[in-house]
Amino acid sequence: MYKRIMIGYDGSDGANDALVLGRKMAEFEDAAIRVVYVYPYEPIGRAANGEYDRLVRFDADAEIAGARRELGDRPDTEFLLVPGLSPPRELHRIAEEWHADLIVVGSSERAGHGHIAIGRVGERTLHGSACPVLVAPWGYREVAARFRRIGVGFNGSGESHAALDEAAAIADAADAELLIVDVVDVGEGLVATNWWFYNFHDCRDDLRVIVEAAAAKAAEGLTRPAETVVPVGDAAAELIKWSHDLDLLVVGSRGYGPMRRLLLGSVSNRLVRSVACPILVLPRGVHGGTTAQEASTIADPVGDPR
Among 75, 1, 67, which residue's Cα sits nearest to residue 35? Predict the structure, then answer.
């Protein structure tokens, strides 16, 4: 599943939440952990200032000492101080060089306790990542418990099938319940057929039967039983509502753009700002077992737009 887990760290409370969640994920496979602190310095030719570099590095080392205390003497754990003016760019670079399977980041304090609100650095880390990104809710370190119920956002696309496989693998490792949430989204209003226009509200019961059947078929090949719920409404709003009853939500990223890169679509973009549990977002066409090195070698055909 995940053999190499990278945690973005900056000494904040949100970063400490990411530490706790990253360590929790590492326990499933005794994964290696790399904690990366990007401090604000980038030497450029004659403008390089060794004394300034030394000072900011000293401050960064004092901050990352908190991560060392949190993770204690856990084996196969590395703490890396990296100079750079763009933390997301450096995190992407290091993840690909190290062949990371997962990046873990924290939330902004504006999220409120127990909720996700991705900050500027976290959002830019999500966009373009070659491996899955896991976001910890604000205050997660205070309430972290074992995964008992894992949910997956499913819509029948290739990205949601990959998310379902990933959620099932984590549920197996955690011995957790698996919940498939497949929303009948009526927000598109009218749809055209050859002869008439049907309103989604008028035919939602028929749609629900079709969606339930598709979700049940997708779950047939899983190694553990899964419960399926098919709410009717706005996809993001329904997933946010269900997140209050989950310990982890797994979703795919946008279904078009570069293959093996993570790009937030309209639904996932809302989820990383509002859900009430950790959220794992997979790049297009990537399962968690695919390293960033493998991901970077894949081309970029166009897929499902959602």
Answer: 67
CATH number of this structure's domain 4-295:
3.40.50.12370
Cβ count within 10 A of residue 283: 30
- Please name every residue paired with 248 in a beta bridge, in sequence order, or none if there are none: 150
Integer distance in angstroms from the first to the last C-alpha of the chain? 26
* 129-183 pLDDT, tens digit each: 889 999 999 999 998 788 999 999 998 888 889 999 999 999 999 999 999 999 8
- How do residues 237-278 score in pLDDT, each as one tens digit? 999 999 999 999 999 886 544 445 566 677 888 898 899 999
CB 104 within 8 A of CB 132: no
Please provide the size of the chain in residues: 306
Half-sphere exposure of 57 (CA within 13 A, CB side): 14
Q: Residue 179 contacts by C-beta under 8 Å, 6 or more apart in sequence?
A: 149, 150, 151, 152, 226, 227, 228, 229, 242, 246
Pairing of strands 149-153, 133-135: unpaired
